[in-house]
Write a structure and sequence with these properties.
With about 230 residues, the chain is an alpha/beta fold. It folds into 2 domains: about 5-140, Hypothetical protein VC1899 like domain (Restriction endonuclease-like) (Rossmann fold, 3-Layer(aba) Sandwich), CATH 3.40.50; about 150-230, Arc Repressor Mutant, subunit A. About 45% of the residues lie in helices and about 25% in strands. The strands form 2 sheets. Strands 3-2-1-4-5-6 form a 6-stranded mixed β-sheet, with helices on both faces. A 3-stranded antiparallel β-sheet has the order 7-9-8. The two termini are about 25 Å apart.
């Protein structure tokens, strides 16, 4: 039987987050608490909330923390995916609980769920007389499938990632993928094909290209790094 792991961004409403776990009905063997200095939240309150959640859950399941330094949607998604991928590679089932997530972490969780195929769920609060009085229900969020990316584009992304996330020029990328050639006709065909793929990757937000002198440097975006991680 697979280990069931819950990844949970932490805000300041620890009671709601703990209740969402109890009412979810999902098995749980391990919890990752995701913490980051989101501008929407009081950092000290977040740390205190995480500490109390950890003390409560530690007697029942294994608990670890994921500390996220750079608070942008794709950077947060990438940091979450590093842990999620490790768990998936070990055969675990991963669920992401966004009940107490800030706006940044909600979006990052959605991206992480889509790229990893993880289940995403959250507690819908119960409101009476304009006040929150508990949880109405647990709702699983349907995630549309990721746009199909060709094998050629995936190979390009993975090759750039293997070079530390950037390549100095289109020619260098061609050399890494197909080797050097003195055949001008073959080179022009390679160049046209590579330019076509890179344009598509740039439109999808996976790479960015910047001219430096006579060359065009190709760099993976944070989304591209996340995509490369899950494609490996």
């Amino acid at each position: 039987m697979s280990k069931v792991v819950h990844v949970m961004p932490v805000g300041v409403n620890k009671e709601r987050l703990l209740e969402s776990i109890r009412k979810s009905g999902y098995p749980i063997q391990k919890v990752y608490l995701v913490l980051g200095r989101d501008v929407d939240l009081d950092w000290e309150a977040v740390k205190n909330s995480a500490a109390e959640i950890e003390r409560t859950l530690n007697v029942l399941v294994e608990v670890e923390k994921i500390d996220i330094e750079k608070m942008s949607v794709y950077a947060a998604a990438l940091d979450m995916l590093k842990t999620i991928k490790r768990e998936i590679d070990e055969g675990s089932d991963v669920l992401i609980n966004t009940t107490d997530a800030s706006r940044t972490f909600c979006l990052a969780s959605y991206v992480a769920a889509q790229l990893s195929g993880s289940k995403l769920y959250m507690a819908i609060p119960k409101i009476e007389d304009g006040k929150e009085v508990g949880i109405e229900r647990i709702e699983e969020i349907a995630i549309p499938p990721v746009k199909k990316t060709s094998d050629d584009k995936i190979l390009i992304i993975k090759t750039i990632q293997e070079q530390g996330g950037e390549v100095e020029s289109i020619n260098k990328l061609i050399e890494l993928l197909e080797g050097k050639t003195d055949d001008q006709k073959r080179y022009m065909a390679q160049r046209a094909r590579m330019s076509y793929h890179l344009k598509g990757l740039e439109e999808d937000g996976l790479v960015e290209m910047k001219r430096e002198g006579k060359n065009v440097k190709i760099r993976l975006t944070e989304l591209g790094q996340a995509f490369a991680l899950m494609a490996s």
